[in-house]
Every structure is written in C-alpha cells, then in structure tokens.
Amino acid sequence: MRRATSIGSDGAAYRRGIVLGLTMAEIMLLLVFCLLIALTVMFSREQERANLLAARLKQAEAALAKEQQTSKDLAALLDEFKRTGAIPQQLDDSWRKLVEARGLVDKLRENGVDPDQLKQYAAKLKDILPTLTADVSGADLATAWRQIAEAKSRMTTIELGNLTVSEVADLIVKGAKTQQAEREGRGEHDWPPIINLSEASGYNFAIGRADLTADFDKKLKTNVVERVAKIVAEYDVDVVEVIGHTDEQAVNNRASNLDGKLIPALAGKVQIDGLTPADNAGLGMARAVSVARVLENDPRLKGVTVLPLSGGQMILPGDKVTDGSVRGDVKERRRIEIRVRRSEGKAASGLRPESGTHP
Predict the structure, then answer these.
(1) Which CATH class is domain 195-356?
(2) Which of 95, 122, 213, 353 has a CA positioned 20 to 30 A from the CA of residue 78?
(3) DSSP code string of 131-164
C-alpha cells in the first residue's frame, strides 16, 4: 500500500472545491453577472413604465388646461347672462323713446311742419338751434331771415351775392352802427383820435436814447394800451401806427447800428438800449420801435398790426412841416404819436368806402 504524499493530498482537496468544473470564485462571479442581467431587465421595465406614466401625466395636464379654459368660458357666459338681465330695461327705454318720437312727429304735423323737410334741412337746423334758446320769438327769427334774404337779393345787383349769411348779418350790423353814428353827429369821416405821448406830458426818453424809462413803460402797459384797444374796437380798425418824433437838436456824432439791429430789436432779439442812432430820423425810429414792441406784445391788441414809423424832426405838433427855424430844446416836439387805420384788405371789404376808412 502506497503512502499518500502531501502534494497528492493537496490535489485531492483542490478537486473537492470544484463544482461543474468551476471554482467557487468563478461561480460567485457568474452569480453576480446573472444578478446584474436581472437588474438591468427590471430597470428597463421600470423605465418604460415611468415613460408611460409621464405621457399619461401630460395628457392629464392638457385635459386639465382644457377644462380650465372651458370653466373660464362658462364664467364669461355666466357674466354675460347676468348682464342680459338689463335687456328688459333697455327695451323699455327704447320703447319710451319710440313713443316720444312718434308724439314729436305728430306735434310737428299739427303745427304744419313736415318731418321729411326737417330731415332735408337738418344741417341748417343745427346752426339755427342755438338761437332758439335765446329770448327771441319765432316771428322775430322769421323777420330776421326775411331781411337777410332781402339784403342778399339787393347785394346781388352790386356783385356781393356770394356773401354768406354771417357776412350779410355783419354788414347789417355795420350799417346800423353807421346810422347810429350819423344820428350822434358822427359820419364816415369822423376820424379816430390821435394819441400824443410827449415829454411835456411826462412820457420821457433819456437824451439820445430809445429805451423806455420805468414810468413810461408802466403808463404804456396800463392807460395807453387800454386807450388804443378801445379806439381799435370802436372804429373797427386793424393797424396801429407808432410814429417817433424829435426836436431839431442835432444828435452827437456817432456811428449808427440801426441797419443791423433795428429789425431784431422789434422782434425782441436785441435790447432797445443796444440801438445807436446817428441822426434824428434814426432816433425817432428807434423810439417808435421801443413803443411798438410793447403794444404788439399786449394780448389786448391781438390781431392788430403795429407799424413803427419815424417823423424825425420834420413834423411839428399839429401836422405841420417845420421850416427849420426852431432848433432848441422843445419838449412838445419830442413825442410818440399813435394813429390807427384800416388795412387795405379790411378797408376794401368794409361797409364804408376805402377813402373814408383811413385816418
């Protein structure tokens, strides 16, 4: 009997640890691999289920949004339905207005007025309605319309037939004013007064200067403008002439800058105290510009043309041309004269002849 060696016993022990030709370690690895395969299959199935649940969730959200929109639409319809509760009241108001309109038509026909004619002349009635609220009777209105129609008929013969009713009415008013003036002893040649602002009356300029003193400026903006505005309205004029006059004292030798600064000064772009006239004609013009600028900026003379002019040393008070014999200091000659007249266009369209409209 042979004796077993250690190597033989070790080999036998090794063979006892093999299963199906695999060691225990290899079997464990195989089991782990099988588990991984099983887990992968399970994970894939869960992923498919999750995707299916996500798709169903999206469908549910879409359905919910649709339901919410439907709810909003239903709420809007409910509000509209609630508002339709006023329909009976609206029907009552419409019916009442219809009855009132029928009553108005019947009343018009009773007074001999054809409703169809009212529709035809609706545009003209719109202009007439404001006069019905005044304290004027229907007979007065009818008389006034007949007079205007007669006036238009007469004016056709003198080539004024194209005037509007408003223009005809203005002419009638002007004619009435003329008749009133004649009854008061004033005729078409009753010229507007001339406003004389002389140094003798306290309207002072500094020697050789055109800028207004504080007192002169205050008088202009109060009493003077008020007088001018009153004359403009009373005589229906639209031009104011501001004429600067001086005495015959010579202006000291200096260079004039009026050619470059006079027009900007009238527009208010250059200060009046920056004007330097070289002679009396220029000094008179500079002073006229100084006064004219105040007048044309006053809202009471809106729409009136203000013209600055110069008489220099040539015109004596009383509209007489000087003979040059009085060369001293004469306060009465240093003055601003304000005259009014009608512009050519206004005179041509006025009631009185043009020759009788210029003062």
Answers:
(1) alpha beta
(2) 95
(3) HHTSS--HHHHHHHHHHHHHHHHHHHTTT-TT--
